[in-house]
Design brief:
About 30% of the residues lie in helices and about 30% in strands. It has about 150 residues and is of the alpha+beta class. It has two domains: about 5-80, Ribosomal Protein S5, domain 2 (2-Layer Sandwich); about 90-150, Alpha-Beta Plaits (2-Layer Sandwich), CATH 3.30.70. A hairpin with a 3-residue loop joins strand 5 and strand 6. It is elongated, with a radius of gyration of 24 Å.
Length: about 150
Amino acid sequence: PDARHWCWAYIIGDPDNTTSAGFDDDGEPNGTAGRPILNVLQHKSIGNVIIIVVRYFGGIKLGAGGLTRAYAGSAQAAVDEMILHPYVPMTQVQILAEFATEAQCRYIVESLNGSIDDVNYSKQVTLTVTIAEQDIERLKERLAMDGRVLEDK
């Protein structure tokens, strides 16, 4: 509650597509806070991220250059600590299987690094799974070998 400024920048999606980026100086002089934070994200080509830098006034005026260095340096310190993971587009699908083949379906999904979100038991087993879009064809091929059906959800 004692913080004077909450300055932030974000990039959503592809880090090279700046139409999905934004920033806010939260009352600091124009271009001294949000823009330097955004520049760090763009320089490192990081997407699907937001950095918020919280500043408390300590009684010393930093000036425009000092503010810019402070905000960029704080953002850089955060980026240096990040553990980055590549973005993998995922999709959710449903698998219709017989009771006898449920375990094999689970094995196939897990072998493709998919996750099982829901299982519904009726006349057949319906598994709702999330899997990388790039693995859908491989999933279909492996399921088709045993007569199982994949439906887009």
